[in-house]
Design goal:
It is built from three helices and seven strands. The chain has 119 residues and is of the alpha+beta class. The longest helix is centred in the middle third of the chain and has 13 residues, at 36-48.
């Protein structure tokens, strides 16, 4: 099993909250695309957080954090962290996702912990 945390645009959060659709995330067209600059910014932040780019394909950019065993998939519409069930791994993935929201452009969604992170 794994622990999943997502990062979406602030616009996606607003759209999801207004929709009332329980299956909102099942339709990728509901997810507001990142700009090219935002994708580049997230890529650089992942690298600065010691994530290693493993591959680039039609699904997006796949990263792995060697120390914590966390994988991250960066697509044009979301950043998806997957951590093993170890407490330290979950903590590190959650902290990285939370810190990536500091610009106000992105929002953290944690389906195992009630949804959108609120401050």
């Amino acid at each position: 099993m794994s622990y999943d945390i997502q990062l979406y645009s602030t616009e996606t959060k607003a759209k999801e909250q207004q929709s009332g659709d329980k299956n909102f995330f099942d339709n990728k067209d509901n997810l507001v695309p990142f700009s090219k600059e935002q994708v580049q910014q997230l890529k650089e932040r992942l690298i600065n957080y010691d994530y290693i780019l493993e591959r680039e394909d039609k699904n997006g950019l796949t990263f792995r954090h060697a120390e914590y065993g966390i994988s991250a998939l960066l697509t044009g519409r979301g950043l998806y962290f997957t951590a093993g069930w170890g407490e330290e791994n979950i903590f590190e993935a959650g902290m990285a996702a939370s810190e990536f929201t500091d610009s106000g452009e992105f929002e953290k969604y944690d389906p195992q912990n009630g949804g959108w992170e609120e401050f």
